[in-house]
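REVIEWER CHECKLIST
Item 1: Sequence provided? yes
Item 2: Single chain? yes
Item 3: Sequence as submitted:
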Amino acid sequence: MVMFYFSATGNSKYIAELFCRNMEAVSNSAVSNFAVSDSAVCHSVEEEIDFSQLIKSSEIICFCYPIFGSRVPRLMREFAAKYMELFKNKKLIIFCTQMGGSGDGARAFTDVFPCGFVEVIYAEHFLMPNNVCNLFFLPLATNKIIQWYLAKAKKKMEIVCNDIKNGIVKKRGFNPFSQGLGLFQGSFMPGIEKRAKSKVWIDGDCNQCGLCVSICPMNNFGLEDNRIITKNNCMICYRCINKCPKKAISVFLRGKVKKQYGYWNTEGLDSPSILP
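Item 4: Structure as written out by the authors:
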């Protein structure tokens, strides 16, 4: 079993690693008509490793990602497309993290594949704190609320892993109502994605530290002539806007960011640090 995840600011990484740790406890248990290996390997899709070999050698492929308006992040879709043929006839476990309700956030990933190409054996949604820090109607959670989210996620993950251990198949987001809700929400996203590619601004507080250049998953930043430039390839994941030490970056909506979602910026999974 292998887990592939994309995590913009830490939420999805937490869920992916939580799953792998929980699955180690049931590593030798029968799962339907196959057995879980003695470990569940966890990798970010941003790593520079031999993904082909990992996919070929794994019977079960797990995915975890944040959902953007009922739409799978572009980087995750591109990853699936790149290794498409290797996923054929694989069994998939799909998790999506969301700040509200996506409708069919986990099911949406199957749209990348031809009909009948893969077999989904489990799909689940996890509520996690909001990392969109520049919309006044989406306030950042307090540390107390974040702990509530994490407690709920841990309890749900215990249920998920026990289900998988016992061969129980659940597919969150696959019913007609969820798909309809996802279709409605997701209908706006292609246009938003296209416009957002160039909707990144850097203000005068930038000190050219180059952090955004090194952490952007889409290689959207560069350093030229002692200034940061953008390359019109943003996928609005909010990593740069939340990690810029000078709060100098704004995404999609122009304006100074007052607070950043920085819970996972400190050492340890449960060490809160909402940046001022």
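Item 5: Key structural point noted by reviewer: The first strand starts at residue 2 and ends at 5.
Item 6: Recommendation: ____
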